[in-house]
Write a structure and sequence with these properties.
171 residues
């Protein structure tokens, strides 16, 4: 009986490896959590990057507007920066949320790549990101005039993706 007990941890480890292996083979890694699409923007307040005063996200993101979650330490965020700057030139309203980033780093990032944001908010500890369902940066949400989240995109925004998202917002 003692021999069987010695093999019990090995058997449990093998069972867990099998379970995770089967899950990994049948799990689509490109699945994008979209739990908030079709729901109102979460009631969160974030400090403004400009003066630190709290701003309700729902007030800053009166739609139609893109809400872009980014960070200075995020390489894909640098890739999408020219797209966002171009969208601003076209008159698209964009609210930026600096995710888990130090304000001086965010300011340097925007000074270097251009500032496309109508409002710049700071989510230093990532709590608002949790409310939004952020899985990584960059992520962009389309918010309608009624405060409902109409669409979500994970990853760097391209001009084509942005236009497809904006087409979902009633004007």
């Amino acid at each position: 009986m003692n021999r069987w007990l010695a093999f019990a941890p090995l058997a449990v480890l093998a069972a867990l490896a099998l379970l995770f292996g089967v899950y990994g083979l049948n799990h689509d890694p490109k699945v994008e959590p979209r739990a908030l699409v079709g729901k109102p923007l979460p009631e969160v307040s974030l400090p403004s990057l400009d003066d630190g005063r709290p701003v309700r996200l729902a007030d800053a993101a009166r739609g139609p507007v893109l809400v872009n979650v980014f960070a200075s330490w995020c390489a894909p965020c640098e890739i999408e920066a020219p797209v966002l700057v171009d969208l601003k030139r076209q008159g698209v309203r964009i609210v930026g949320i600096a995710y888990k980033d130090a304000p001086p780093n965010t300011e340097a990032f925007l000074a270097r790549l251009g500032d496309p944001y109508d409002a710049r908010l700071v989510d230093r500890d990532g709590r608002a990101g949790i409310e939004l369902g952020v899985t990584g940066v960059p992520e962009t949400y389309l918010v309608g005039a009624d405060g409902m989240i109409l669409d979500k995109h994970s990853g760097p925004l391209t001009a084509e993706i942005a236009q497809a998202m904006l087409a979902k917002a009633p004007r």
